[in-house]
């Protein structure tokens, strides 16, 4: 099987997976109470109750009598619920095929435009978290593997495990209390990615202001993620160092640096490189909700959470479609990276 046939096969397999995820979520939504129609009816009932109670004159309270059937039909038509579920599902899929994700009930704007407006925050957190995690974890993991059993290995393991055991949200609260003006020092801002006077700052001032704002969120985001990568790197290198070909290379008189960086390094990087795409995308979406909420960063995590709470179904389905599609593509890229790092791998084994 050549590379293009394999890619085509994987793309064809993505279609039923994507349809299945969307169909299940759509079906569940049909039975969730408190949808946009119910919310609007409840709001109208509340307004009617206020008007009636404010009218005086001893008139009977009629707000609880509800909203007339014609008005309810108009509300259903406004949100598209006047059509049968299967028809709405078919129309949604037709829009998704052209990346028309619909219009938000709450924000009254296109879901695609809404997602793009939230992207800068998620991209900022994701890129910094991803690059700092790899820049710290890989060298530290290699150093720990080479110095296994030493004091450096023990101390660094303790520090890494402590960082891993503290949830990012808890660490974020601690950083805000200590360094964000909570109770002690006011070195960093409490919220946002930029200051109010961002437009008036010079280029150097904008860079400094940006770095000043993201310091605490990035520390809170990176602290837990780099521990797993560090231990994975260490264990992978240890496994390779103990293999027969390393002993043979050493017996031939090769220097330790040549053995490590010419022979061990490439084989040990296979699981790290193959997880590269997933880690890259995961940094954008995994755990971003709590960090965004804590530091008042208006990103994709907060948007997804609020859309579920508000029953903003176009945003829920649109973001689900995008995230699922991205996840499937990333899985394919991970398999292709595996082949790139280790050409001995065959497509037939990847396809299983």
From TrEMBL:
The record's Gene Ontology biological-process terms are: microcin transport; transmembrane transport
Q: What keywords were assigned to this record?
A: Cell membrane, Membrane, Transmembrane, Transmembrane helix, Transport
Q: Does the keyword NADP apply?
A: no
Q: Pfam families in the record, alphabetically?
A: BPD_transp_1
Instruction: Describe its membrane topology.
Output: Multi-pass membrane protein
The answer on whether this UniProt entry bears the keyword Cell division reads no
Which segments constitute the ABC transmembrane type-1 domain? 119-334
InterPro entries (UniProt xref): MetI-like, MetI-like_sf
Q: Which Gene3D superfamilies match?
A: MetI-like (1.10.3720.10)
Q: Which family does it belong to?
A: Belongs to the binding-protein-dependent transport system permease family.
The protein's name: Inner membrane ABC transporter permease protein YejB
Q: Which organism is it from?
A: Herbaspirillum frisingense
